[in-house]
Amino acid sequence: MQIDVSRDVFRLAQVFTISRGSRTEAKVLTVRLTDGAHQGWGECVPYARYDETLESVEAEIRGLPDTFSRQSLMDLLPAGAARNAVDCALWDLEAKRAGKRAWELAGLPAPKPEITAYTLSLDTPDAMRAQAAKNAHRPLLKIKLGTPDDMPRLEAVRAGAPDARIIVDANEGWSAEVYADLAPHLVRLGVALVEQPLPAGDDEALIGLERPVPVCADESCHDRASLPGLKGKYDVINIKLDKTGGLTEALELRRAARAQGYGIMVGCMVGSSLAMAPATLVAQGALVTDLDGPLLLAEDRDTPLVFDEAGVHPPQAALWG
Predict the structure, then answer these.
(1) Three-class SS of residue 307?
(2) Among 42, 225, 244, 290, which one is least packed by beta carbons within 10 Å?
(3) Active-site residue identified among 142, 233, 240, 243
(4) In the chain, where are the structural domains located?
(5) Where is the signal peptide (predicted)?
(6) What does the alpha-carbon distance between residue 268 and residue 250 come to, in Å, rounded to a whole number?
């Protein structure tokens, strides 16, 4: 089996800012697997938060042997971006070999559209109010917070989009005391979920803390091995394929997390429709779907995902799976 890796850059529609910095483009790795008759592909987004770079992830992929399967891949690569792109490419390859859709191979029912969050870039309160007003027609907005000026921004967004459901992502920027202080205001403003309020290494402080707004583990949850450490701290987990290391582990993590009583959120890094396509299978019936990466781009893959009032639609076979 031949492995090809390429670096692709997609321009963003506008500057995108979170508490960790700003960007104007999405840099991704595209993996193509060819067996001579069929080709499958997948995409990953290396993330500096997990000590990943384009170079390091590409080296991991190029270091794979000539022959492997989705099962053996779990032992060959750790959970992370490299394994994600290869695993998703394998699913696509297997679907093309079988003449079936990936969801059929996974034993899943036919996927349907899911309402997805739309993320507002971190900015001044006035600018965020304007962003919210522009996107007030969307049923679910996500706000990136984690700064000393979070409340003015949140108040501004609620004023700009009075009817939208709102979730917030603190990007590890709060403490337990900050969450406890903000919680009544989050309830007042109708916030439905808080994503990763505390640094992953300090989230023991969530144990025993009253959580009037559900708390979701993002940086604290990567794969099934993360679950024992989440008990008593979180109500929801955020499944991202670039964390789980692909669709194979993501489906297993979803099954195990649901069995333990966690709500499911399915998120993404900022990437193209190819990166989101496998995640639409995991997002079926999720409490929160956050697969808005392509909506933030100025350009996308051929045969991109469809986004409309019904949400993000499953991919056409021409894109993936």
Answers:
(1) strand
(2) 225
(3) 240
(4) 2-106, 118-312
(5) none
(6) 12
